[in-house]
Amino acid sequence: MARVVVNVMPKQEILDPQGQAVVRALGRIGVTGVSDVRQGKRFELEVADDVSAEDLERVAATLLANTVIEDYEIVTDGAAR
Fold this sequence. Notes:
alpha+beta, Mth169, Chain: A, 4-stranded antiparallel β-sheet, 2 helices, 4 strands, 31% strand, elongated
């Protein structure tokens, strides 16, 4: 078994209202110096050793991320794909 992590983030050109809410809240609690926050999702999958890179790509692109507005990164064994 292997652990695979899929990080999903809004594309840079997409407005991130949750991230902007965090930026505003930081100011209210006295934290300065943070100019931008992007909030995303992290998925951890335990997969059999025979699950292919192509299968992982299909899972990420069709099920975990909305590729119209989100980018994703697949991390296996500490290395991004």
